[in-house]
Every structure is written in C-alpha cells, then in structure tokens.
Amino acid sequence: MLSEQERHEIEAQSHHYPNNRALCIEALKIVQAHRGWVSDEGIADVAEALQMAAAELEGVATFYNMIFRKPVGGHVILLCDSVSCWIMGYDRLREHLHARLGIGLGETTADGCFTLLPNVCLGACDHAPAMMIDSTHYQDLDPAGIDEILTKYQMKEAREEKKEKGEPPDGNSADP
Ligand code: FES
Predict the structure, then answer these.
(1) Ligand 1 centroid to 90 CA: how many Å?
(2) pLDDT at 59
(3) In what order do the strands lie in the sheet with 136-138?
(4) Which of 22, 85, 124, 174 lies at a CB distance of 3.0 to 4.6 Å from 128, suitable for a disulfide?
C-alpha cells in the first residue's frame, strides 16, 4: 500500500497530467524516491492507486531506464555509452570506474555507496564524455575529474555516517 506521503505527492502531481496513464511515470518516480527502487510490491501499489494493470506499469517501468527495478546503492552513476562518448574516451572512463569502485556495469559497491549503470546519450554530446550521478550531470570528464567527483560523494557519505553515529564533524563540508 502507498504511504500517506507517497499518496499525497502523487495526488499533487496528478493535476499536471491529463490522465493516470500519463501520470504513471511520475508516480513510479515518487515511489522510487521514497523506497530507493521500485519492487513488484511498489508496482502493485501504484497500479492500485492509479487503477491501471500492473502488467502495463511493469512495461513502463522496464522501458524507462530511470526507474530501478532492483535495489541500487545510495548514489547511481549513469555512464553515457553512446557514440560521442565512445569517441571521446568512454572506454578509459569505464575502466577507471571499474578500477576505482571495484565493480562492473550493473553492479553496486560493497559499501552500498554507488551503483554503476550504462545509459544512452545524456544530451551533453558537445561536452563528452559525460555521466550523471543521481540527478547531477558531469561532463568533459577524465579519470582525474572522476576521482575528484567520487571523492566528494565518499566524503559526504562519511560525514553523514559520523552524524548518524553522533560523532563530531571533521570540518570539511564541500557537498557534491
Ligand atoms: S553521446 Fe554521451 S552525452 Fe551524448
């Protein structure tokens, strides 16, 4: 069953769409924002709320690559694997990410911090190679730039972990 908050947010979005079929991607994104990914139960919950067939929603969720049907890490890296990025160094970046994170495409780091996924063109071809982390775009990438970006995320995770444990911050608060 949808939570009160999920139901409220979907209802708030419903005014921007002509019908439930048009609303369904937004509804799936809302469920994903609250649960981290969209399980079969999440599909069933949205289907019930929008009075749609679960199979139809399943098709939408599978087609739309920003809906995650498996658990993902705290941050999702979408590495562009389309033609401009191939030309501008995709292989080197992919290998660098594999080495730096210890995971391949479609995998999540052991600490649950990152999931690495391939993605079609991110619309930044004139600044290839490009990637996205969560909803933030990064472009004109090289291995050193990737290291810098990932370090910021890892430092942020470490700060949040300290905060959760009630430990004092280390004084560096540069968020990604
Ligand atoms: S091909 Fe990578 S951003 Fe377009």
Answers:
(1) 10
(2) 94
(3) 107-108, 114-119, 75-80, 131-133, 136-138
(4) 85
